[in-house]
Design a protein that fits this description.
The chain is an alpha/beta fold and about 375 residues long. It contains 13 helices and 10 strands. Strands 1-2-3-8-9-10 form a 6-stranded mixed sheet, with helices on both faces. Helix 5 packs across helix 7 and helix 6 crosses helix 7. It is globular, with a radius of gyration of 22 Å. The model has no long low-confidence stretch (mean pLDDT about 90).
Amino acid sequence: MRIWFGEKWWHEDQYRDVLRGDPTLDEIDRAVERLVEVFDEEWSSECHGHPAAPWLLSKGTGPLEFQYELGADLLEMDGALRIRSVIHGLKQPSEFGGVRFELGMAALLKRNGFAVEFRPPAPGGRAADLAVAKGLEEVFFELKRLDETRIQAAVQRLTEDVMFATSDIMSERFAGTNAPKCAIELLPDALGMLSGDPESDAIVTRTYKNIISEEIIRHCGESLPIEFCIPSVADIRIGAAQDQFSGIGHPMLPPEVELKRIMRGCLKEALDQLSGFSPGIVVIQTGAILNPSVATSVIATWLTRADRDLSYVSAIIFLPAIPPSGGKVWLFPAFAVLNPKARYPAAALQSYICLREAFDIYE
């Protein structure tokens, strides 16, 4: 890890001006250096199977964005109450996704002038993920990043493997220049070969990765822009004017599936963690599709007719997850369900207003 950091490969011309916010090289250096302190040599020697390992130990535009944002968030939250438990969670393969979401939300709020405390104790043995305060206002946040189903996990592994392979090809073929964007859309027939069985899906993933890599290499010598189709596998564009970012897209499951999963599981669990004596906001992030209108109607009705007092809940926010394999088009617009019976209306809470503006939340 330290050898990798010492290379400072992101100083090369091809990586300039690729990060949102245009951070300076010094800011990127400090962010990556903080990563090296957290994900140290001991961790890197035992990190097999950790979801962050490919992103921390690889080069490319995608890994650089991942590394900078994680390092910057760690720097922002240094010294926060219970940050050690957050760092410990980041190192655990099974906890990384949820804890990363928690860290990112905390850093965003702190950058906007809020005091943030991780995992504050509350009466009755409850423990929300964040306590967020500004002036006389204190709001408890419970954050849920939904785990993938087995099929979703298989799709994610496929897109990540293809992304890493194509990123290496593009870097090699266009070394020393700003590499053109490579947009890949996996076709339904390709995803239909995934079953959720790890062994068979590993064979499918390896096969499609090799097919796509070989075809990209074969077409890279052509004049830009390049556009071609691999039948039953993927549509691919390289250097097309409409593509501002490299990325991999694929068909998704219908929105009803994810709404049922939320209603039957994580929503009730999240509400149970909030203090009933202070304003509470639930934020749920999912990589699946939701229909905002249907979800808002169903959840608002449920909040109104619940057989227990939920008036302490001000809002339930839904955020789409952008997969690390690329792409900037969200699967659904961020939206919030405002509790019709809330004692503390969300529109009057500074922290809710901050998130509404940051994520362009639809109400």
